[in-house]
Design a protein that fits this description.
The chain has eight helices and 21 strands. Helix 3 runs antiparallel to helix 4. Helix content is 21%, strand content 38%. Strands 7-8-9-3-10-11 form a six-stranded mixed beta sheet, with helices on both faces. Strands 2-1-4-5-6 form a five-stranded antiparallel beta sheet, covered by helices on one side. Strands 14-13-12-15-21 form a five-stranded antiparallel beta sheet. The protein is α+β, with helices and mostly antiparallel strands. The relative contact order is 0.12. Strand 1 and strand 2 form a beta hairpin.
Length: 359
């Protein structure tokens, strides 16, 4: 567990963060510019000292103002990947990778180089690399120090779209194959959907909501931060089987609820994350018959939120443990007389698998 309880004044921003984060997977730190995301990871790395508070990484205390403990950055065993790669121009890629490594571990070096696909770059200099290649080298340099935690400050922010597409598969491999916990600062919703296991939303220096990415994405606190076209639900599901006649794959939400998605090249039992846009969900109180919609789920109304300025009602539906949001017009909600606890049918026009739809 990474336990954070720190306060720091930064001009007009009062950073006041209380968090307990898991020691595995990628945790996305999300929020608008100037809200304290980078300030938080600078405090974690030791580049900035909090005014007061404590940080504990596993069983190691990184700082504790009451006890007078403050480990400098070089003693925290934390890797840091900045927005720009910050490579040494006079070193080759191999020299940049091994800079800061105290112990030579050829097996670890080979594993990291292979993971990031930079074998062919080792004898080249930074000036000859693309932006995506530079970031892969920067990530490799951080991993080769064998950190207890990796901090990544918007590593795709300075890249154009082709370079982002170049680097994204390597970040996905990183998330799946490296046991080091990663804190990933971003303001990109697409990157969160593609990479994150957990999510923290920060506003004006304070935590608004934190937890599993599916639950945070679908929380009422998150909805004001999402553009209308991004209002959606995230659900983890297991691949079941492919339709024998059509290019569709069935994924299971639970033992009695399933969805059809575009055909996936995935193994039976493999976990995927599906995304359902709120505007693609309609509600009926009677089970529909002879309809073109393939995905119809039995659900229970769990929460109602009024969106007065748009004359809409956001309806949160419960399907087992999964939550699905639907956007209804005020007229439709009144006519259906929707109430919390109602048993209804959710008709879902479109479902996408987030790992396959990033652009």
């Amino acid at each position: 567990m990474l336990a954070i309880n720190v306060q720091k004044t930064l001009g007009n921003l009062e950073l006041d963060i209380k968090l307990d984060l898991p020691m595995q997977g990628i945790t996305a730190i999300f929020g608008r510019s100037g809200t304290g995301k980078t300030s938080l990871i600078n405090v974690l790395s030791g580049l900035s000292e909090p005014d007061k508070g404590a940080i504990k990484l596993g069983d190691r205390i990184l700082c504790d103002s009451e006890e007078g403990i403050y480990l400098p950055p070089e003693k925290r065993k934390i890797g840091y990947v900045f927005q720009d790669a910050r490579l040494f121009p006079h070193y080759t890629v191999a020299g940049n990778l091994t800079y800061g490594c105290r112990d030579k571990d050829q097996a670890h070096f080979d594993a990291v180089v292979t993971l990031l696909g930079i074998e062919s770059l080792l004898q080249r200099f930074p000036s000859s690399l693309s932006g995506g290649e530079k970031q892969r080298v920067a990530i490799g340099r951080a991993l080769l120090t064998k950190p207890d935690m990796l901090l990544m400050d918007e590593p795709l922010a300075s890249l154009d779209l082709p370079r982002k597409q170049e680097l994204m598969p390597y970040l996905e491999k990183l998330a799946k194959q490296v046991n080091t916990p990663i804190l990933y600062v971003t303001h990109s919703l697409d990157e969160i959907l593609r990479l994150a296991d957990h999510m923290v939303m920060i506003n004006q220096g304070k935590v608004v909501v934190a937890g599993n990415v599916n639950s945070v994405w679908g929380s009422p606190e998150m909805r004001p931060w999402l553009p209308a076209k991004e209002q959606s639900s995230l659900i983890s599901a297991r691949v079941n089987h492919t339709h024998p006649d059509y290019a569709l794959t069935q994924v299971m939400l639970n033992h009695d609820a399933c969805l059809w998605v575009s055909k996936l090249n995935r193994l039976r039992g493999e976990w995927v994350r599906v995304r359902i846009h709120s505007n693609d969900v309609s509600i009926t109180k009677a089970k529909p018959e002879k309809t073109s919609i393939r995905n119809i789920l039995t659900a229970r109304v769990d929460k109602l939120l009024s969106v007065d300025e748009e004359e809409k009602v956001a309806v949160r539906l419960r399907v087992g443990e999964a939550q699905i949001w639907a956007n209804l017009t005020l007229w439709a909600a009144d006519e259906l007389n929707i109430k919390v606890g109602d048993e209804v049918f959710a008709q879902i026009k479109g479902v996408s698998v987030t790992q396959d739809d990033w652009v």
